[in-house]
Structures are given as structure tokens and as C-alpha cells.
Task: inverse folding
């Protein structure tokens, strides 16, 4: 379903609302046909603004937005043919569900019989076939969500934008809807630009995630790349759980960096986003990649750790310890070897494979 | 089991007792308000409305006749006791000058009654009797005409419909049938029609001006919105009289508007903008505009912008999005605004009186006219009742669709 064909592309797009502050700074992004791209980032990072520019409700201050290879900067929203699901659903309260769904077809002057057929078809697709005569206010949040989705799809839009569509639902419903949205996406092959600030949502649904911060895409990559190979400290800390240690670079060789931590201990890490020898760096290592009390002959280094707290979580054990002055150093140990269980107050040695730890920029 | 049942009933008893206490408390809380409403609202209005059918004054002027004529079958002429009674009554009423009042009232039904009573009153002392039947008929042969007695019998009942009928240009003829009044006297139906027409016209004008105004206000920045609100409320900060008079200054022949238009060379003759229907429309629309704008603004500022955006993203042009998605959501505001403006316009009095011509006066003007000039409370009340009926039926028709309690003014 995914092809290399570019569907939407942002070229050097900037946006300022007040002429002083840039809310979106130099956005460059290509979205492939049929791709599910998620914009993930903290609130106020400019995600909605990007979506609004794409939908045509906000003009780009600078740069160009291409759709099917044509610039759409001067095309009004109603001619763009982009489906949109709003966070508050935006179902028209004075119309029934069926009337809501018929609206985009009526304004396209489709004939009545065709409209009825399409409406029923899309209702069945979101499993709401019986609800055509209800008013939006008579539906639950999840049901309204489905109708909003159906309405964005009923006129055969090839691109659907969704701005935090599941934000108002409870956890269980959210997970179900994530699954259904993903399902529909795969069935119809539409391109989706999805906005969320929930990283687990982004990780489960997306082909590609763009992590936004401060109006800049920090990294655009597939979910596993993003988790395994964050390119800077912001992404490393924003996605998943992460331990950070700061230190100074001693040597750089073969893509590795030897680093002296603030405690004076020496460790190794993969040099990803570092400056020169002598500059400081931020090391980032996932909790599950930390090795406790390793065989000293088999690892290049060990450093001291002091166990502060243990949390038993069944399949794994979470341990908070102090490592190189960081009191919040977390490790996750699989619950498989009783003889290696730790005790609170115990002093241990910790280590990691150099390629599991990433030396990144200091923030 | 037995114990359970006992405790069960006592539980029910307890529940009832607490419920009853709650009910008493609730009633206690609203009683003062209710009494206040009763004393200052319902009772005065009720009394006022009763005046439109009240006829007790006539019975006070002619108590004996009233009692004697009750038994008259209405066929032929009444018997001697009725004639005796009316002479007795006139003997008292003529010197008291209340007889003239009765004459005016009866003249409503039958022209000539007023002169008959005053003539008879004047000659009462020379009248010989009893028996009076012959003597009265000799004095004026109208006393031998059954039509006068039919009118008198009806005129001495406790209640009368003549005033209410009069507001619809109807009256009783001398055979007790309801008929139309002669064309040259038929004025009230056209006045009621004119009142409704002017009110509808003003309501439409208010809607046409108020809707865009409220829309701009609801979508403006806080600064602009406050300025617009002050501009609107300025209407309330000056007295009705000053406002209306200033319209005369603006609209009169040598007023601002005509001066500007003539200076600009658009017209060579001053336009007649005041002391006619145009002046009434302009001044009333100005005064009533806030009552249209405020509910509209309230509703509009509660409509989030994403609805129109959604419509646009679904392929609607801005015009289609506006009329199919935005406007329907303002319906409660349109309904409430129209109702408020229309009902107030129905009762307008000073503004048409000052800036209108004789053909532009509304129902309230005639209410005031009957109270102040004619001292005819009955006619004033009957016209008032008509106003109330129009308002009430409108409310019944529209009340289902427009719930004013839904409108929040923020
Ligand atoms: N219509 C607007 N006018 C002015 N500033 C805005 C407007 N919309 C958003 N902003 C500002 O732009 C920034 C980014 O907002 P937004 O795109 O909504 O972020 P996000 O969706 O990522 O939470 C925020 O600082 C916000 O205050
Ligand atoms: Mg947002």
C-alpha cells in the first residue's frame, strides 16, 4: 500500500501568528501516499498549526505546501478535498448523523440516491449502521468519534487529517479506536496525518513519527528507529523511559566516545550528536539496556550504583538507584534469576554495551 | 420477618417525614415571592382586565331598574314596575349628574339614548305618576320603543362584552345580534393590524441589522467587542424621550440627514423622514436593537469556530458553511431576539406618538387616549386585553421552539 510516491510535502514552511514569534520554523517534510504520519510533541509545539496550514485554515507565512505535486498555498480549504477530524468532533448539532455524513456529498452536488448509498456504506464501515437518525448529542463520545471519522472519509478524500482525535476518550476506548483507525487506514489506503501528544498512541499507530518541539521537527523516523536510535536528547527523553548522565568527551574513535562522568568515572557510548573532544555531552541509556553486576572481564567498564528502591512488577523488576550522582537512574531487570535479586541499600556495579548508550547534545 | 416489616414501615415513615419537611421548606421559600407576584402583578393586571367586561357602574347608577328589568322577557314593552323603577333611579341620578354618564355608556349601543336620558331628566319634575308608563311614553315616544329597552336590559347586566366587541369593530344591534359597526366607525381592527404590521417590520429590521452586528461582535477582539457593546448600551443610558427627540432633530427637514444629502447633491428636496412611518421604523428599530443583538450575541459567542471550519474542510464554500452550519445554530438567539423585540414593539407608545403621523399610532396610543382623554377605563382595558392576547398567542405558538431560559447573557 505504501509507495514512494510523495503525496504532501512541506517545503521550508514557516508560520508566525503575530509577526514576532515563529510558531513553525522551517518545516520540511514529505508524506508518502498511503503513509500514516504522526506529529508528536508537547502542547504548544506547533502541531495543530501545521495541520491548519495543510487544511487551508491558516496561511503559511513563508514556504510552500505541495499536494499531489501542486502548490496549494492559494487554494481555499473547500477546494483542497482534505478530510479532517477535529478534536471536539465538530459534528453539526442541528443535523442527524446521516445528514452530517451527507453534507460533504450534498455540497458536491451528488445525486440523492448516490448520497444515501454512500452514507449507509460509510456508516457500516464504522459499525454505526443503525445510528443514521440520531442526533450527535444522543451518541457517546466513542460513537461521535466514529461518525466524525466517517464524515472525513465519506467524500473519498485521499488525505485525512486528525487533530488529537482520541483526546477526549477514556483509555480503553482510546485503544480500541486506535486499532480501528489503523484498520480503516489500511483498508482504504488513504494518507493520514495524525496529531497527538500521547507517545504510546504514536508508537502503536504510525508508519512514521515526527517529533515536534518548539516549532521544529526534532526527528522524523519510524517508531522503532525513534525509540532505538533517538538523534538528540529531546527525542531520547520524550520517547519512552530514559536515563541521562552528563559528562565530558575524552576521545572519539570508530563512532564511539569515551566520556568522563561528573563523578569522575569513565564510560563509553555511541557518538551520535557530539561536539569535539573536551566538550560536554549527555548520555542516554534505556533502563532495559543497563547490565547489573556483569562479569567484569566481559565488559569494557563498570561504574558504581547504590540501590534506592525496588518495585516488583511481576514480569520485571524496576530498580531506582543512584549512579554517578543521578538519583533517578532506573533499571528494569527481567524476573528470571532469583540469585541476582537486589536488596535496597546494596552497592552494585552497572555497565552497558557502548552501542546501547547514545552520546547526545546537552539540553 | 415481622421485625423487618416493622422497621420497613418506620423507614418509610421517616422518609415521608423528611420529604414532607423538604416540601414545606421549599413552599416556604417561594411563598413570599409568590405573594409579591400576586399583589404587585397578577391582581392589578387581573383587575385591569376585568374592567374590560365590568359593568357594575351602570347598576350602581340605576339599581332599581337593574333589578326590575331582569325579569322582563324582552318581548313587547316592559310592565309598569320597570317604568316606576327607572323614574325613581333618574330622580336620584339626574341631580347627581351620573345620569349623563349612563347616557354616554348606553349611546355606545344605541345612538339617541344619551339625548333621551338627558331630556327625560330635565323634565322629570313635571312628570305625573305613578303609574309612569303612559307618562314617559308621552314625554318621548322613544320610551315606547322596545329597542331602547333591549339595550337597557343588556346595559344593566353585571358584565358586558361591548368593549371587547368594539375593539374588533363589532357591536350588538338593537335585536341583540353581533354585527359590524358602520365602516366610518370601524377603526380598531385596522389599528390592531397596523400595530402588528409595524411590530413585524421593526422586528425584521432589527434582525437584518442586529444579526451582522452580533456576528461581528462575537468574532471581534475584546477591545472592539467592548466598544460595540458600549455603543449598543448607550441606547439604555439616555432616556427614551431624549433619544426619540434627538431622532426628530436628526431626521427633520432641516435636520442632519437631509442637510448632508442636500449638500452632497443627492437630493434637491428634503426627504420626509419624520412624523411619518419611516420615522417610526427608524426610531423604534434604534431603541429595540439591543434586545435583538444581546440574545444573538450570547448564542453566537457560544458557537465554536470549528463547526464552520469543519464545514469548509468538507467542501462547503464560506457562504454555504455560513448558511447551512452557522445560521441554524443561531436559531435560539434569533427566536428569542425576535420574540423580545416583537413583544416590546407591540406595546410601543411614546416613540410612535412623537415621531409618527396620525396614521402611524399604535394600539398603546389608544389605550393611553382612552385613559387620559376619555376616562374610559373599560375601552382602555379591552384594548390592553387585545395586546395581551396577541402576545400570549404568539408565545404559545413560538414558545415551544424558543426557550428564553436557554439564553445566557454573559
Ligand atoms: N490562532 C492563533 N493565534 C495566535 N497564536 C496561536 C494561534 N494558534 C496557536 N497559536 C500559538 O502557536 C503556538 C503553537 O500552537 P499549536 O499549533 O496549537 O500547538 P499544538 O497543537 O502543538 O499544541 C502556541 O504557542 C499557541 O499559543
Ligand atoms: Mg493542538
Result:
Amino acid at each position: 500500500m505504501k509507495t514512494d510516491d510523495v503525496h504532501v510535502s512541506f517545503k521550508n514552511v514557516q508560520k508566525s501568528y503575530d509577526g514576532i514569534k515563529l510558531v513553525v520554523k522551517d518545516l520540511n517534510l514529505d508524506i508518502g501516499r498511503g503513509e500514516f504520519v504522526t506529529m508528536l510533541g508537547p502542547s504548544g509545539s506547533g502541531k495543530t498549526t501545521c495541520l491548519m496550514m495543510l487544511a487551508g485554515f491558516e496561511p503559511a507565512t513563508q514556504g510552500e505546501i505541495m499536494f499531489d505535486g501542486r502548490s496549494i498555498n492559494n487554494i481555499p480549504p473547500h477546494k483542497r478535498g482534505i478530510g479532517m477530524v477535529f478534536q471536539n468532533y465538530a459534528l453539526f448539532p442541528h443535523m442527524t448523523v446521516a445528514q452530517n455524513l451527507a453534507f460533504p456529498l450534498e455540497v458536491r452536488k451528488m445525486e440523492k440516491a448516490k448520497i444515501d448509498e454512500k452514507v449507509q456504506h460509510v456508516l457500516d464501515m464504522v459499525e454505526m449502521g443503525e445510528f443514521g437518525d440520531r442526533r450527535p448529542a444522543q451518541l457517546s463520545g466513542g460513537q461521535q468519534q466514529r461518525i466524525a471519522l466517517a464524515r472525513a472519509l465519506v467524500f473519498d478524500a485521499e488525505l485525512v487529517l486528525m487533530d488529537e482525535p482520541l483526546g477526549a476518550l477514556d483509555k480503553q476506548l482510546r485503544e480500541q479506536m486506535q486499532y480501528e483507525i489503523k484498520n480503516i487506514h489500511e483498508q482504504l489506503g488513504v494518507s493520514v496525518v495524525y496529531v497527538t501528544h500521547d507517545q504510546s498512541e504514536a508508537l502503536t499507530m504510525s508508519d512514521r513519527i515526527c517529533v515536534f518541539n518548539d516549532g521544529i521537527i526534532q526527528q522524523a523516523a519510524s517508531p522503532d528507529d525513534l525509540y532505538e536510535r533517538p538523534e538528540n536528547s529531546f527525542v531520547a527523553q520524550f520517547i519512552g523511559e530514559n536515563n541521562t548522565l552528563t559528562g565530558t568527551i575524552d576521545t572519539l574513535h570508530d563512532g564511539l566516545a569515551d566520556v568522563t562522568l561528573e563523578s569522575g568515572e569513565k564510560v563509553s557510548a555511541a557518538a551520535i550528536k557530539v561536539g569535539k573532544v573536551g566538550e560536554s555531552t549527555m548520555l542516554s541509556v534505556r533502563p532495559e539496556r543497563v547490565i547489573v553486576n556483569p562479569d567484569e572481564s566481559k565488559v569494557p567498564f563498570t561504574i558504581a550504583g547504590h540501590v534506592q528502591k525496588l518495585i516488583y512488577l511481576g514480569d520485571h523488576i524496576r530498580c531506582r538507584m543512584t549512579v554517578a550522582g543521578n538519583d533517578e537512574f532506573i533499571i528494569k531487570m527481567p524476573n528470571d534469576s532469583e540469585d541476582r535479586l537486589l536488596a535496597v541499600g546494596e552497592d552494585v556495579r552497572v555497565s552497558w554495551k557502548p552501542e546501547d548508550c547514545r552520546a547526545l547534545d546537552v539540553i | 420477618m415481622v421485625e423487618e416489616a416493622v422497621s420497613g414501615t418506620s423507614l418509610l415513615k421517616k422518609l415521608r417525614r423528611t420529604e414532607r419537611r423538604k416540601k414545606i421548606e421549599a413552599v416556604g421559600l417561594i411563598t413570599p415571592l409568590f405573594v409579591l407576584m400576586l399583589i404587585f402583578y397578577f391582581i392589578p393586571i387581573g383587575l385591569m382586565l376585568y374592567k374590560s367586561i365590568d359593568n357594575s357602574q351602570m347598576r350602581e347608577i340605576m339599581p332599581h331598574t337593574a333589578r326590575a328589568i331582569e325579569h322582563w322577557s324582552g318581548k313587547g314593552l316592559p310592565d309598569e314596575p320597570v317604568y316606576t323603577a327607572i323614574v325613581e333611579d333618574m330622580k336620584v341620578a339626574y341631580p347627581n349628574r351620573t345620569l349623563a354618564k349612563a347616557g354616554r355608556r348606553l349611546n355606545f349601543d344605541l345612538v339617541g339614548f344619551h339625548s333621551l336620558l338627558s331630556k327625560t331628566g330635565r323634565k322629570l319634575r313635571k312628570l305625573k305618576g305613578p303609574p309612569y308608563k303612559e307618562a314617559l311614553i308621552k314625554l318621548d315616544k322613544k320610551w315606547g320603543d322596545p329597542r331602547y329597552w333591549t339595550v337597557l336590559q343588556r346595559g344593566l347586566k353585571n358584565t358586558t362584552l361591548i368593549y371587547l366587541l368594539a375593539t374588533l369593530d363589532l357591536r350588538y344591534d338593537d335585536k341583540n345580534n353581533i354585527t359590524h359597526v358602520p365602516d366610518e366607525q370601524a377603526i380598531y381592527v385596522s389599528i390592531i393590524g397596523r400595530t402588528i404590521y409595524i411590530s413585524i417590520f421593526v422586528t425584521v429590521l432589527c434582525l437584518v441589522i442586529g444579526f451582522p452586528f452580533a456576528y461581528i461582535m462575537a468574532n471581534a477582539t475584546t477591545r472592539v467587542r467592548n466598544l460595540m457593546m458600549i455603543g449598543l448600551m448607550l441606547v439604555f443610558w439616555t432616556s427614551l424621550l431624549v433619544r426619540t427627540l434627538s431622532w426628530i432633530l436628526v431626521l427633520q427637514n432641516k435636520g442632519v440627514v437631509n442637510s448632508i444629502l442636500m449638500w452632497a447633491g443627492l437630493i434637491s428636496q428634503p426627504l420626509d423622514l419624520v412624523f411619518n412611518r419611516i420615522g417610526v421604523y427608524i426610531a423604534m428599530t434604534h431603541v429595540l436593537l439591543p434586545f435583538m443583538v444581546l440574545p444573538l450575541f450570547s448564542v453566537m459567542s457560544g458557537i465554536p469556530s470549528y463547526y464552520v471550519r469543519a464545514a469548509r474542510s468538507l467542501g462547503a464554500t464560506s457562504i454555504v458553511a455560513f448558511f447551512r452550519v452557522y445560521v441554524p445554530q443561531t436559531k435560539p438567539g434569533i427566536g428569542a431576539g425576535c420574540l423580545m423585540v416583537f413583544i416590546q414593539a407591540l406595546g410601543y407608545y411614546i416613540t410612535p406618538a412623537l415621531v409618527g403621523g396620525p396614521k402611524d399610532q399604535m394600539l398603546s396610543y389608544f389605550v393611553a387616549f382612552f385613559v387620559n382623554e376619555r376616562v374610559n377605563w373599560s375601552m382602555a382595558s379591552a384594548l390592553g386585553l387585545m395586546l395581551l392576547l396577541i402576545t400570549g398567542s404568539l408565545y404559545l405558538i413560538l414558545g415551544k421552539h424558543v426557550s428564553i431560559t436557554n439564553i445566557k447573557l454573559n
Summary: The beta strands of chain B are 170-172, 178-180. The interface with chain A takes residues 304, 306-307, 309-318, 320-321, 324-325, 328-329, 331 of chain B (CB under 8 Å). Chain B has 20 helices and two strands. Residues 405-410 of chain B have pLDDT under 50 and may be disordered.
